[in-house]
């Protein structure tokens, strides 16, 4: 009996973004069963990227080779090529998947539903439903999806309210082998120059418009104003995110908040790879470990 052939359109499973991590965790479990033929389109990888070799299943890099000027010109002619449209139909013809799935925003995936080869594969899609209203174009695309999911139960309800029939929710879980407290919490606070009784509330998310960083920082600022002094004076907001990126001007938001000394961020050194949390000082800094002026805020490519 032939194995089902499953294709994931992903950012690239070796990256540290949320989408990439979700894709990696799903694919490695499917691959481990031995029941399926697995393939992945790595949207943010090129043929020259040696990290392609880390992937156990069949891997198709989406970005053209750097020495192929004609391909690069064509690739750059449409924004959706960046999200896998450049390679998608070619991969369909080569891999011939039974199932295609992905879990991204509408503008990163709508081409999958309108491929000329659409009738040859079952399309499973999990869009990011995190606000209202949903655009009419999104609904039109979701109606053509064979298996529709959502990250949250709230998202399932929203899709149903729009007359769609999602199967259910599939929220990311926490792998206890990876996500766990490391070291002594008091020692960590001391290393960061914080009081031992510091109260730290944090978030890990990419700097994108839909992540609403202005609202988050403003809410924290209001909390500091209204909380009892005994609480406010030891409270901190930790932002594990990057700048510059496609979202907000984080330094400006911090400056305008009036509570910059209470906002912590993650820094990583491009030279020695040291990483540490610190009160926000600037976008670029000198490394505390090796002394090089090559420390930046963490981002989707300079992850930890």
What form results from the Cα inertia axes? globular
What class would the helix/strand composition place it in? alpha/beta
Low-confidence stretches: none
The number of helical segments is 10
State the distance separating the first and last CA atoms.
Answer: 42 Å
Q: What string gives the helices and strands in order?
A: EHEEHHEHEHEHEHEHHEHEEEE
The count of DSSP E runs of length 2 or more, i.e. the number of strands, is 13
Mean pLDDT, to the nearest integer, reads 93
* Arrangement of strands in the largest sheet: 3-2-1-4-5-6-7
Q: What is the helical fraction, as a range of percent? A: 25-40%
- Main beta sheet: 7 strands, parallel
Strand content: 15-25%
Instruction: Write down the Rg.
Output: 22 Å
């Amino acid at each position: 009996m032939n194995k089902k052939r499953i294709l994931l359109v992903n950012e690239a499973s070796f990256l540290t973004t949320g989408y990439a991590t979700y894709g990696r965790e799903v694919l490695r479990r499917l691959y481990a069963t031995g029941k399926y033929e697995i393939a992945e389109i790595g949207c943010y990888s090129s043929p020259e990227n040696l990290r392609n070799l880390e992937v156990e299943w069949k891997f198709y890099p989406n970005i053209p080779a750097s020495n192929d000027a004609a391909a690069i010109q064509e690739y750059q002619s449409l924004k959706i090529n960046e999200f896998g449209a450049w390679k998608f139909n070619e991969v369909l013809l080569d891999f011939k998947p039974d199932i295609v799935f992905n879990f991204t925003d509408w503008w990163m995936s709508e081409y999958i539903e309108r491929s000329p080869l659409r009738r040859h594969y079952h399309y499973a899609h999990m869009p990011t439903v995190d606000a209202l209203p949903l655009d009419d174009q999104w609904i039109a695309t979701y109606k053509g999806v064979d298996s529709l999911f959502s990250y949250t139960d709230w998202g399932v309800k929203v899709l149903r309210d729009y007359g769609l029939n999602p199967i259910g929710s599939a929220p990311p879980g926490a792998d206890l082998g990876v996500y766990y407290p490391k070291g002594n919490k008091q020692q960590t606070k001391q290393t960061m120059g914080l009081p031992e009784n510091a109260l730290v509330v944090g978030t890990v998310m990419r700097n994108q418009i839909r992540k609403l960083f202005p609202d988050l920082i403003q809410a924290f600022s209001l909390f500091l104003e209204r909380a009892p002094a005994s609480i406010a004076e030891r409270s901190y907001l930790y932002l594990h995110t990057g700048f510059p990126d496609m979202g907000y001007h984080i330094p400006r938001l911090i400056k305008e908040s009036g509570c910059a000394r209470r906002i912590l961020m993650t820094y990583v050194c491009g030279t020695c790879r040291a990483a540490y949390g610190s009160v926000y000082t600037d976008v670029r800094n000198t490394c505390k470990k090796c002394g090089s002026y090559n420390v930046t805020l963490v981002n989707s490519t300079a992850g930890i």
